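Extended Data, record LysR family transcriptional regulator
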Amino acid sequence: VVADLKGLKQGGLRLSTITTAKYVIPRLLGPFCQRYPGIDVSLTVTNHERVLENLLHNRDDLYIVSQTPEDIDVSFHPFLENPLVVLAPRSHPLAGEKNIPIESLADEPFIMREPGSGTRKAVQALFERHGVSVKVKLDLGSNEAIKQAIAGGLGLSVLSRHVLALEGLNSQITVLDVQEFPIKRYWYVVYPTGKKLSVVARTFFEYLLDEGKEIAQKTSLQGVF
Ligand code: PGA
């Protein structure tokens, strides 16, 4: 009977996620799509502001964000931790130091995500709270490009720890132990309150919060060193 039900789950699934979820969601989709071969997925990966725009226009079934929207009524479910950490080149003088004061970051050239990014918003809010003003040398619209820029010695940045997922032990970048970091955050699965999810969307939603969570936890630990 279960097999029959699985066979009946057919149709399209539309997901809209913030940039950091791309390190995890595709991994979860593998086993999911194997189990439900009749489901075709469309996954949009973009920044926080654009995901909210998609949500506002009801373009997708489910959305993954790190900050729940203030002005849209949504049902939200925390799915996995998504902490923000300070990244530096491995050869940086502060690498390996303990408990670095946050004010030290003001002396360093800084690389910031683009306006509209949730990462940027969280980083700016923390610096403002502590009266730290960093010298932003570069605005970059891609976590991967920022990692390359850090490795290239352009400056430091604050990004989700998940961007380290694909880095090996020989990575040229490292996490600095700075006070007030990591900034603790979560990924949330959200959809408009009252929206009736399709059978396919409901199936993925349940998978995500159950088995998906476990796979994600394992994946996310691989890049941490
Ligand atoms: P962003 O979101 O791509 O909008 O910066 C990523 C995150 O908040 O983890």
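Summary. The mean pLDDT is 91.
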